[in-house]
Design brief:
267 residues, TIM Barrel, 11 helices, globular
């Protein structure tokens, strides 16, 4: 790889892949292969996972051959790929979860998202059985806490206990739903603090979503520091969010330039 254009300057640090913290999980809606190549040309080093969130496309429009090509393209740039969580929820409703896991594995995905942010909560025993089944098939498992419609009270204590339990079950990362983050940032930031205390935030993926993602990133980095893991970052925001994390963006005030901390828990 050629040296950077301004390689005489020292950039803010970012650990090399594979990373377990300071991760970036990008969500893309089944963008064309050529557009994927263009994105990877400039941003592959800062993207750890790509999540395909064209849910209906995964079910009916995007062929297995196309998905394999897409996965191979990302993998060639050291980016892992997972499907979005909605197809899993469809599989739950249609009672086809084992078949769904097999398809995820056979298509080359690195893991599966087991979310329940739209459907009724899955019984604990069944949930644990499916986590074990997916892991036994060689899939990484990501779970999710919170609801898209914020229609159930966010009980920080019980969710923190669930996060700790999922970690013990071998779940690799746990999403915090972006709609819940938006609500909690405004009304109950202490609830997010409680989750962060479980393991210092290492297992958590904070979803930024489509509603003011860069502003959410600024708030989260200022509160929890640059090692926070981000998820549901659009292809159009990955560069800006990386710069925010590392103190090199105007929305965060360029703390790296002024020798300030790029973030940390505020009292």
């Amino acid at each position: 790889m050629d040296s950077a254009a301004f390689g005489m300057l020292t950039p803010p640090p970012l650990a090399p892949k594979p990373r377990s913290t300071a991760m970036m999980l990008m969500s893309e809606v089944g963008i064309p292969l050529r557009q994927t190549e263009d994105l990877l040309e400039i941003a592959a080093p800062i993207i750890d996972y790509a999540k395909i969130t064209d849910h209906l496309g995964l079910i009916e429009r995007l062929s297995a051959a196309w998905i394999r090509r897409k996965v191979a393209l990302y993998n060639a740039h050291d980016v892992k790929v997972v499907p979005g969580g909605i197809p899993f929820q469809v599989a739950v409703v249609q009672r086809k979860v084992p078949d769904y896991f097999k398809a995820v594995r056979d298509l080359g995905f690195a893991g599966v998202e087991m979310s329940e942010d739209v459907i009724e909560p899955i019984a604990a025993g069944q949930r644990e059985e499916w986590i074990a089944l997916a892991r036994g098939m060689g899939l990484g498992v990501m779970t999710e806490m919170g609801r898209k419609n914020v229609d159930v009270k966010f009980d920080a204590e019980s969710i923190a206990q669930q996060v700790a339990h999922d970690i013990k079950l071998g779940v690799s990362k746990i999403y915090i739903e972006s709609a819940e983050i938006q609500h909690l940032v405004k009304d109950d930031p202490g609830a997010l603090d409680r989750l962060f205390k479980v393991d210092g935030g290492k297992a958590l993926l904070f979803e930024l979503g489509l509603n003011s993602p860069q502003e959410k990133a600024v708030w989260l980095v200022e509160r929890y520091g640059p090692q926070i893991n981000f998820a549901s970052v659009s292809p159009y925001d990955v560069v800006a969010v990386d710069a925010i994390r590392r103190g090199m963006h105007r929305k965060g005030g360029f703390p790296y330039i002024f020798g300030k901390s790029a973030g940390g828990k505020k009292g």
